[in-house]
Design goal:
- By secondary structure, this protein is an alpha+beta fold.
- It has one domain: Trna Endonuclease, Chain: A, domain 1.
- It is built from three helices and five strands; from the N terminus they run αβββααββ.
- Strands 1-2-3-4-5 form a five-stranded mixed sheet.
- A hairpin with a 6-residue loop joins strand 4 and strand 5.
- The longest helix is centred in the first third of the chain and has 23 residues.
- It is globular and about 40 Å long.
- The termini are far apart.
Length: 147
């Protein structure tokens, strides 16, 4: 911007188009706490899976249709893991609805497209429930892609 582009008093001219809010979701303190809580829960879930003999292939695999929290493998089986952290195990389990399952399944299809060597493996969709102060619970085959 050139000095001649400034208005009297040093103000910049108004931008064209719609105004953007000053605070983004990333700068919202509540969203930051929730994000950190989720990252911590994913780390706890990954540690549990490693302790159980799983090999972590990816964390936070992002696609246009959704995100897979953890992609792991154990004994030739490919596992797509959703991590849910809530105040109670019941709340965490209830947080995984059919719509979210569909997004995870769609993201898994994109994983398989990007990793064709995994397409012939047995696979399943697991869930790890994380509650503060408790050991995470690993639910194997928590939902099915054919449902």
């Amino acid at each position: 911007m050139k000095p001649t582009d400034l208005r009297p008093g040093g103000a910049r001219p108004a931008s064209k188009g719609t105004a953007k809010p000053a605070a983004t979701e990333a700068s919202n303190p509540e969203r930051q706490v929730a994000f950190r809580f989720g990252i911590s829960a994913e780390s706890r879930a990954a540690a549990l899976l490693v302790a159980k003999g799983y090999r972590i292939l990816a964390r936070r695999f992002r696609t246009p249709v959704g995100e897979i929290d953890i992609v792991a493998r154990r004994r030739g089986v490919l596992i797509f893991v959703e991590v849910k952290a809530r105040a109670s195990f019941a709340d965490a389990a209830e947080a995984i609805g059919r719509r979210q399952q569909s997004r995870i399944i769609a993201a898994a299809e994109l994983w398989l497209a990007a990793h064709p060597q995994d397409a012939q493996r047995d696979m399943r969709f697991d869930v790890v429930l994380v509650v503060p102060g408790r050991m995470p619970q690993h639910l194997q085959a928590a939902f099915d892609a054919s449902a």
